[in-house]
Amino acid sequence: MELDSLYQEVILDHYKHPLNKKLSPTFTAQVHHVNPSCGDEITLNVNISDGIVTSVTWEGVGCSISQASTSIASDLMTGKNLDEALKIVESFSDLMSSKGTMAGDEDILEDGVALAGVSKFPARIKCALLGWMAFKDAAIQSSKN
Ligand code: ZN
Fold first, then answer.
1. Which among 48, 78, 100, 126 could disulfide-bond with 142, CB atoms 3.0 to 4.6 Å apart, if both were Cys?
2. Which domains can be identified in the chain, with CATH numbers?
3. Where are the beta strands (DSSP E) in 24-113?
């Protein structure tokens, strides 16, 4: 897999120094998502209060793409209101289904654009989406509680 070297660095940095990788003791929803095709696995806790995502924490094992992507997503979602957060997830899934034709909007996705190149590799898209889909699942469960 070849990714732009600057982007490669962003991904490696998140992989080596993942953000929010320590489960919070309390949460409004907890989910466990796996990507069996690669062996990626994460548990993710969210806290949503008055429609604001106050924290996203996680623990997991897996490939650098899945772990870096979850780090990026957790950082990006923290502090957003729920509607905004879900729109960002949608924007990221659009990017992942673009087959390499989209660069991603850095204003919306921030470090998430570093994963744009992954969309050219169908086998890795689930790795990149794992943390985002886990967040979405947790956010929806949390808003039902
Ligand atoms: Zn993976």
1. 48
2. 3-144 (3.90.1010.10)
3. 29-35, 40-49, 52-61
The alpha carbon of 75 and the centre of ligand 1 are apart by a number of angstroms equal to 19
Question: 94-116: per-residue pLDDT in tens?
Answer: 999 999 999 999 999 999 999 99
Q: Tell how far the Cα of 38 is from the centroid of ligand 1, in angstroms.
A: 5
Interval between CA 15 and ligand 1 midpoint (Å): 12
CA 80 to centroid of ligand 1, rounded, Å:
27
- Find the 145 Cα to ligand 1 centroid distance in Å: 31
Could you tell me which residues come within 8 angstroms of residue 65 by beta carbon, excluding any fewer than 6 positions away?
11, 115, 118, 124, 127, 128
